[in-house]
Amino acid sequence: MNVTVRARTGDVQTIAVELEAAEVTDYLRGFYLMTAQQAGLHPEPGLTSKQLVERECNLDEVGRAASETVAVRATPAVLDRAGIDAVGAPDYGCHGYAQEGQPFAFDLTIVPKPQMELTSYDPVEVPHQTHEVTEEEVDAFLAQVAAVRNLSELGTPEQLRQRAREDLQAEADERTRAYQRFIAADALASRLTNPVPDAVFAAHYAEITQDFRASLAEQEMTEEDYLRERGLQADELKHRLMSQAREQLRQGLALDALARHENLKLTTAELKEFLASMSEGRPDELLHTLKEQGGLRKVEETALRAKTNDWLVRTARVA
């Protein structure tokens, strides 16, 4: 993979990429296999997935989809190689169609993540909040369990109540921590010296809108179905997504600024602990995949923001 970072133009950065023939072949094999499966094409003796897809589908459409897929799958490795953090989904300009056994070139146009500063790095203030689980909550929880299980099979009444109390308290404590993390990050974000640049907001909003629609598609639900079920108008949904995009950006960029100011770093152990929560306890395997296929910078960003948010809460003034 050859990566050339071109001169930045305004709010966007263009990266020229040339993939080696072996890299292109690996990406395309995965594309054709997945496309054949999604199209319900059954394996036939003597035919590859590529041949099956090309026989049954429009060649121009397949060529465009294959080329874009190669570019999309290569992008995390490209950004890691270039050392650039991007906001939102990139735009792609492919030079011809990707072909097995041949190099493939494309341009990647991104909106780089800005570095922003805060008016103050003093501790923020978070409200004092605790919740002690009541016996009524334990009763209600056990009643729900009893509706689907025979409680006598799960232990004595005393054991059940103690276990339920501990589980409910753990959930309540985590809700409190999540609330304090949000309040602390929101307070920190109010100290940004400048508003989020329009291009950065537009890129992130486009990405979360795309992710939202993809989530609906996985549930076989249309946007109209979603609006009808929740009694929303299209403008209300757009406003909610815009608010979500704005808050995610403000809080994330504020946490980045605090991490730089306090020189907070992510240790290998902390990174693996974060990866363990994403990989069903196989952090080393996931770390190897991220290093090989790209995407490590993005995961490190998320993990460091989480660490910084926890640090922010620990050092906060409790009202």
Automatic annotation (TrEMBL):
<protein>
    <submittedName>
        <fullName>Trigger factor</fullName>
    </submittedName>
</protein>
<keyword id="KW-0413">Isomerase</keyword>
<feature type="domain" description="Trigger factor C-terminal">
    <location>
        <begin position="158"/>
        <end position="313"/>
    </location>
</feature>
<dbReference type="Pfam" id="PF05698">
    <property type="entry name" value="Trigger_C"/>
</dbReference>
<dbReference type="InterPro" id="IPR008881">
    <property type="entry name" value="Trigger_fac_ribosome-bd_bac"/>
</dbReference>
<dbReference type="InterPro" id="IPR037041">
    <property type="entry name" value="Trigger_fac_C_sf"/>
</dbReference>
<dbReference type="Pfam" id="PF05697">
    <property type="entry name" value="Trigger_N"/>
</dbReference>
<keyword id="KW-0697">Rotamase</keyword>
<dbReference type="InterPro" id="IPR008880">
    <property type="entry name" value="Trigger_fac_C"/>
</dbReference>
<feature type="domain" description="Trigger factor ribosome-binding bacterial">
    <location>
        <begin position="1"/>
        <end position="144"/>
    </location>
</feature>
<dbReference type="InterPro" id="IPR027304">
    <property type="entry name" value="Trigger_fact/SurA_dom_sf"/>
</dbReference>
